[in-house]
């Protein structure tokens, strides 16, 4: 019963809920399966490394919605992504790194793509906290 609920909630497409091996799922469905496994326990901290990689637009939007729901329940999400639009839309704060070092932490509501880009290139703009 629980597996059926997760498959429905995370929109995992599988030919047979009980007899399908993970290796035959598409990349996007494997990504959904991983998200289902990690999110169903509603963790206090979720470290998400490129969580929407390989997902179609519908699944990407659904994943973002699930992250926002988790955040509203009080969980912290450490999102690692190169997709600036995704980072800016999901984050409260953005920490930018260059060559393994933090260049600064920005308020996501005030950050600009240009400012983040400068920091990603190793240029620290005025007002960025480290």
Could you walk me through the main structural features you see in this protein, from its secondary elements to its overall organization?
This protein has helices at residues 2-9, 27-39, 57-72, 84-90, 113-120, and strands at residues 45-49, 76-80, 93-98, 101-107. The model has no long low-confidence stretch (mean pLDDT 87). Helix 3 (57-72) links the parallel strand 1 (45-49) and strand 2. Helix 2 packs parallel to helix 3. It starts with a helix and ends in a 10-residue tail after the last helix. By secondary structure, it is of the alpha+beta class. The protein folds into two domains: 2-91, 3-Layer(aba) Sandwich (Rossmann fold); 92-130, no CATH class. Strands 1-2 form a two-stranded parallel sheet. The protein has a two-stranded antiparallel ribbon with strand order 3-4.
> Unreliable stretches, pLDDT < 50, 5 or more residues?
none
Q: Can you tell me the CATH superfamily of the largest domain?
A: P-loop containing nucleotide triphosphate hydrolases
Give the number of domains. Answer: 2
Percentage of residues in strands:
15-25%
What's the shape?
elongated
Order of strands side by side in the largest beta sheet?
Answer: 1-2
Strand segment tally: 4
- String of helices and strands: HHEHEHEEH
* CATH top level assignment of the largest domain: Alpha Beta
Helix count?
Answer: 5
Taking the sheet with the most strands, its summary is:
2 strands, parallel
Rg (C-alpha, Å): 17 Å
Q: How helix-rich are the residues, as a percent range?
A: 40-55%
* Assigned CATH architecture of the largest domain: 3-Layer(aba) Sandwich
Q: Which structural class do the helices and strands define?
A: alpha+beta
Oligomer: single chain
How far do the termini sit from each other?
Answer: 47 Å
- If you consult CATH, what is the topology of the largest domain? Rossmann fold
- Overall residue-averaged pLDDT value: 87
């Amino acid at each position: 019963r629980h597996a059926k609920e997760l498959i429905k909630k995370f929109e995992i497409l599988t030919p047979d809920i009980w007899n399908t091996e993970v290796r035959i799922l598409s990349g996007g469905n494997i990504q959904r399966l991983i998200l289902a496994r990690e999110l169903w326990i509603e963790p206090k901290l979720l470290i998400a490394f490129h969580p929407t990689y390989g997902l179609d637009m519908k699944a990407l939007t659904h994943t973002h919605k699930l992250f926002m729901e988790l955040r509203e329940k009080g969980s912290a999400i450490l999102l690692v992504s190169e997709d600036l639009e995704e980072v800016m839309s999901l984050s409260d704060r953005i920490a930018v790194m260059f060559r393994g070092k933090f260049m600064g932490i920005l308020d996501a509501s005030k950050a600009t793509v240009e400012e983040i880009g400068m920091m990603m290139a190793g240029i620290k703009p005025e007002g960025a906290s480290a």
